[in-house]
Amino acid sequence: MRIKWPGNSCIVCLKEVPLFREHLIPKALGGILTCSFLCKECNSALGTRVDAGVKKDPRIRFAVDSLQSDIPNLARKFMEGQPYIFQVGDWTERGKFRKGELRATTRQTKEGALIQPSDEGYKSNERILRKNGINEDTIQEGLRRLHEAKENEIVALAPGRIAVKRRVEQVEPDLRGSKLLTSLLPLKIGYEFLALHLGSAIYRQDSTLGRLRVALRQGLEDHPSFHVESLNASEYRPFHGIDFVGNNPHAVVLIRLFGWLAFRVHFHGLAINHPSISYLHRLDTNQEDIQTTNRSADTPRQSGQPDC
Ligand SMILES: [Zn+2]
């Protein structure tokens, strides 16, 4: 869903420059809610600083892994290039998904076996057999038998050389180098979602909105203008959601990713007196639903809170 933006300036740096399309929920997570309200510079800074981190978060990796059958296309894209760990016989191997296929990292075991992706294995064997002076017919016959062999069946290619197409088992995300998302992603999504409520009032030069813009511009994970609570639901489900949950005691936005990972973003000192927006994106059908509700009896605003 593409939301039309009423302003001419970037909602983060306030510069009046051409505006670029921003995914509120990162594209890497299948997000399709967009609005053109960021300048090129802020869009690229937030992309590098915030969106790039989502693929490294182990909670997100497990969520995508467990929802693979519901969201096969998104899972395939998300898994591309990601490190995995798996069993090959008694060996624990590592590798990455390339073009939808898990490819082992080539290595020699201490027993002298060469572990390789199958296509590379055929080439290596052919090269080594030729180097050892084996005649071409024997080489091709050996490779043909290897090709036709079942998984885990030992094939004698030539005297002194065997090959096995090993079964890959227990594939799991390799979490070395993984990193939990910082509070910047929920802050970014929450602030952009507030902008959808406020329209051009997001540009107001009051100290509360100003401090949020500073936190976003400078990539501050910890700042008195906001705080983020992390919560978990009981199971993964194929949807993302963003809801404005009210002004009690200040504006709060609830973000849910893959139905399970949730963040409650508290915007200190800010109250939003606009109808609430509730957004839901079903990842299995790619359907989106956006609803606006008038909050007639919202919590009274506390003194000192800017009224937006
Ligand atoms: Zn900007």
What do these coordinates show?
By secondary structure, the protein is an alpha+beta fold. It has two domains: 2-57 and 180-293, no CATH class; 83-172, no CATH class. Helix content is 26%, strand content 30%. The chain is built from seven helices and 17 strands. The strands form five sheets. A six-stranded antiparallel β-sheet has the order 12-15-14-13-16-17, covered by helices on one side. The protein has a four-stranded antiparallel β-sheet with strand order 6-5-4-11. α4 runs antiparallel to α5. The longest helix has 15 residues, at 184-198. It starts with a strand and ends in a 15-residue tail after the last strand. Zinc ion is lined by residues 10, 12-13, 15, 38-39, 41-42. Zinc ion (ZN) binds at residues 10, 12-13, 15, 38-39, 41-42.
